[in-house]
Design brief:
Strand 2 (83-88) and strand 3 form a beta hairpin. The protein has helices at 24-36, 40-49, 56-63, 67-79, 99-117; strands at 54-55, 83-88, 91-96. It has a domain at 30-111: Winged helix-like DNA-binding domain superfamily/Winged helix DNA-binding domain (Arc Repressor Mutant, subunit A), CATH 1.10.10.10. It has a three-stranded antiparallel beta sheet. By secondary structure, it is mostly helical. The protein starts with 23 loop residues before the first helix and ends with a helix. This is Winged helix-turn-helix transcriptional regulator.
Length: 119
């Protein structure tokens, strides 16, 4: 006879975790991705890009930062494959690399909002 675990009445069941630990290489890459999200400046930039492609100048205006500061952060985000760059004449146009980036951020925001709503 198999015993089913009791579920918390107000919480949905958690999604299944991977059956085994990721490899060391995968763990290092995962740590790198999460370190990108550990900086509020980069999160603001990622949020600004959530609405679509922006130039560096548009990102500067959206997040209230100087062009050199934004360019530095964009280099970090691009190297981590969080954003991608497309050249358009003299402008660099940035967008989120894929839907996973938005999903990670959205899940984090949901988690924080849920935590604050329980206070």
């Amino acid at each position: 006879m198999q015993v089913k675990p009791k579920l918390h009445p107000t919480r949905p069941a958690l999604p299944a975790f991977p059956p085994a630990l990721p490899s060391e290489r995968e763990l290092e890459a995962l740590t790198g991705i999460f370190s990108i999200f550990a900086d509020s400046t980069r999160i603001r930039i990622i949020c600004a890009l959530g609405d679509g492609e922006l130039t560096v100048g548009e990102i500067c205006a959206a997040v209230g930062m100087s062009q050199p500061a934004v360019s530095h952060q964009m280099r970090i985000l691009k190297n981590a494959r969080v954003v991608k760059c497309r050249r358009s004449g003299r402008n660099s146009c940035y967008s989120l690399d894929d839907d996973h980036v938005a999903q990670i951020l959205n899940m984090g925001v949901e988690h924080v909002k849920e935590a604050f709503s329980n206070e």
